[in-house]
Specification:
Number of helices of chain A: 13
Distance between the termini of chain A: 16 Å
Number of helices of chain B: 10
Distance between the termini of chain B: 33 Å
Oligomer: heterodimer
Shape of chain B: globular
Chain lengths: 341, 182
C-alpha cells in the first residue's frame, strides 16, 4: 500500500516526537489497525534511532532494577489464562514488506566483537528471527507463564483500570477532530481485512477464525458509512478493534488483546446519553472475530456517538442484562470514508 | 555495551522467558535508555518510571522484536522515547527554563564506545541532517534529543507554530530523500 506524503510526514513526526497528544493518539490508533502504517512509523524510528548513539550514558539508581523485577514478578503472580489466547492474538508487528523495503537491515552487526558467532550474525538478517534464534534459551514453560501474566493483568487489575468514561470521551473527540482523510486509506484496508480478506496478500490477512452469529457480511462492500473504534484501557494497549457498518447495522469486533479469564466473558455495551442504561451488544472475544447485526434498534446518530464499553462478566454474559463487572476497555467510533469510495 | 548481535541474541532469549538474559540485557542497555529519557523528562522520578515501564514492555513483547527492521537498542530506545514523549505531552509542556539542564543533563558519563564508533547509519544520517539549513538542523536535533513539541520549538525559534510544522515536515522529507528513500 502506497502512503501519501501526509502519511509519511505524520509517521516521521511521530518518530521525531513533535506531535501533540491528540495527534499521537491518532497515530497510535492508525498503527493498531494498519500493520503497514505501523511499519512505516517503525521504519522512521529505526532511521532516526542512530541519533541515540550520541546520547551519553547515565546510570539509573540500583533500586530501579529491583522495581522492575518486582513488577514482573507481580504480573507473573496473576497468571492463569488460556495460554493459546495470547499466542494467537494477532499482534501488530511491523514485518510488512514496504517497511522492509524502506529500511533494509541497516544495523547489521559488525564482526569486531570477539565471541560473536556467525550464526548469531545471521539472526540479525533473517525475517523470522525469534524462532530461528540460537536455542540457548530452552526455558519454555516460564515464558508462557510470564507472558500470560501480562495478558491477564489487563483483566484482573480492572479496579485500577476502570476507565473514566468522560475523559475517554473527550480524548476520543479530540482524536476524531484530528482524524482527516488520512484515515480513509487505512480504514479501507481494515474494511478489506474484514470483508474481503482474499484480495489481500497473505501477510495482511487476518486469521479467519470467525465466530458466526448470524453474521451479515456484504459480498461486495457498498459505499456506506464505516466506523471504527479501538476499545482499550490506554493508548498503548488496544484490546479490540470495533468496526460498524451503518448500512447493515452490524458490528464486527476483532480481538487483538487477551482472551477473557477462564470462567469469564467479555461483554460489549453501547453507552449513550440517549439511553437510560447501557445496552448489551453481546459477548465478544471468544474468538478472533465476532460479528453481530444487532444495531438496528438504534438510530444512526446514537450508534455513531455512543461510547462502546467492554465489561468482564460471568461466562456467557451478564445474567441480568445489565453490566455487573467493571469496565475494562472503552472506545468511541471514528467515522471514516467508505471503502467503496 | 554489547554488540547488536549479542543484544539480538539476548532479546531472543528474553522472548523465551530467560531471566538471566533479561538481567544481562538490562545491564547492557539501562544507562543508554535512562540517558535518553532523562534528556526528555529532566526528572529522576519520571525517568525511572518510564524506564521501568520500558523494561516491563520489553519483557512482555520481546518476541515482537524483528531484527530485520530494527536494531535492539533502537527498538528499546523507541519504546522508551515514546513513553517519555507521551508523558510530557500529557502533562503539559515543560517550560523553556528547563532548557539549560536539558542540554547537559546530570553529569553524563562519557560513553567511549558510543562516541568512538559511530555506526555507518549514524554517519549517513548526520550527513543528511547536515545538508539541512543550520536552523533546521538544530530544529530536528532539539526535537529528537529533548522531545520538544512544535510549540516549544516555535518559542525557541521565534516563529509561528505553523511555520515550525512546515519546517519539520520539509526537513523530514529532505532527510528521507537524502537517505535515498524517496
Amino acid at each position: 500500500m502506497a502512503y501519501s506524503e501526509d502519511h509519511i510526514a505524520l509517521a516521521a513526526e511521530y518518530a521525531l516526537g513533535t506531535l501533540d497528544a491528540a495527534e499521537r493518539a491518532q497515530v497510535e490508533t492508525m498503527m493498531a489497525v494498519d500493520v503497514n502504517f505501523s511499519a512505516l512509523v517503525q521504519a522512521w524510528e529505526f532511521r532516526l534511532g542512530p541519533l541515540n548513539q550520541m546520547v551519553g550514558l547515565v546510570e539509573p539508581r540500583p533500586e530501579l532494577w529491583e522495581r522492575i523485577k518486582a513488577e514482573i514478578a507481580r504480573l507473573r503472580a496473576t497468571a492463569g489464562v488460556d495460554p493459546e489466547a495470547v499466542a494467537e492474538a494477532p499482534v501488530i508487528v511491523a514485518a510488512a514488506e514496504p517497511a522492509a523495503a524502506e529500511s533494509p537491515a541497516a544495523d547489521t552487526p559488525k564482526l569486531e566483537a570477539p565471541g560473536v558467532e556467525a550464526a548469531e550474525i545471521e539472526v540479525a538478517q533473517t525475517d523470522a528471527p525469534v524462532e530461528t534464534a540460537p536455542q540457548n534459551a530452552p526455558v519454555e514453560a516460564p515464558a508462557t507463564a510470564w507472558r500470560n501474566a501480562s495478558a491477564v493483568h489487563a483483566v484482573t487489575h480492572n479496579n485500577a483500570n476502570v476507565v473514566q468514561l468522560s475523559s475517554k470521551v473527550r480524548q476520543w473527540r479530540a482524536v476524531a477532530n484530528v482524524m482527516t482523510a488520512l484515515a480513509a486509506a487505512l480504514l479501507a484496508l481494515v474494511g478489506v481485512q474484514v470483508y474481503r480478506p482474499e484480495v489481500l496478500p497473505q501477510q495482511l490477512r487476518s486469521k479467519p477464525r470467525i465466530q458466526t452469529v448470524e453474521v451479515k457480511v456484504p459480498a461486495a462492500p457498498q459505499p456506506s458509512a464505516q466506523f471504527v473504534a479501538l476499545l482499550q484501557k490506554d493508548a498503548a494497549s488496544p484490546a479490540f478493534i470495533l468496526t460498524v457498518d451503518a448500512t447493515s447495522k452490524s458490528y464486527t469486533v476483532r480481538r487483538v488483546g487477551a482472551a477473557p479469564e477462564a470462567g469469564k466473558s467479555f461483554e460489549l455495551w453501547l453507552v449513550s446519553d440517549k439511553l437510560q442504561k447501557p445496552r448489551s451488544l453481546g459477548v465478544i472475544g471468544g474468538s478472533d472475530f465476532t460479528s453481530r447485526p444487532v444495531l438496528s434498534a438504534y438510530d444512526a446518530d446514537t450508534v455513531s456517538r455512543a461510547t462502546y464499553a467492554v465489561t468482564v462478566e460471568p461466562e456467557g454474559g451478564s445474567p441480568t442484562g445489565q453490566a455487573t463487572g467493571p469496565i475494562v476497555f472503552t472506545g468511541k467510533l471514528i467515522e471514516t470514508v467508505p471503502p467503496g469510495r | 555495551m554489547l554488540t547488536p548481535a549479542e543484544l539480538v541474541w539476548l532479546l531472543a532469549a528474553v522472548a523465551k522467558g530467560d531471566e538471566a538474559a533479561f538481567e544481562r540485557l538490562y545491564a547492557a542497555t539501562r544507562a543508554k535508555l535512562y540517558g535518553v529519557v532523562l534528556r526528555i523528562l529532566h526528572r529522576q522520578d519520571l525517568a525511572e518510571e518510564v524506564v521501568q515501564e520500558t523494561y516491563v514492555k520489553v519483557w512482555n513483547n520481546a518476541a515482537q522484536f524483528n531484527p530485520a527492521v530494527s536494531s535492539p537498542i533502537t527498538w528499546m530506545a523507541a519504546i522508551a522515547r515514546n513513553r517519555a514523549i507521551d508523558l510530557v505531552r500529557k502533562r503539559g509542556e515543560l517550560s523553556l527554563e528547563d532548557e539549560p539542564s536539558a542540554l547537559e543533563v546530570a553529569a553524563e558519563t562519557p560513553d567511549p564506545l558510543a562516541r568512538r564508533e559511530m555506526s555507518e547509519e549514524l554517519k549517513r544520517l548526520l550527513e543528511c541532517v547536515g545538508q539541512l539549513e543550520p536552523d533546521r538542523q538544530k530544529l530536528v536535533l532539539l526535537a529528537y534529543y529533548n522531545g520538544w513539541s512544535r510549540e516549544q520549538l516555535a518559542t525557541k525559534f521565534e516563529a509561528p507554530v505553523n511555520t515550525v510544522k512546515t519546517w519539520l515536515r520539509r526537513s523530514m522529507m529532505d532527510i528521507r530523500q537524502c537517505l535515498g528513500l524517496g
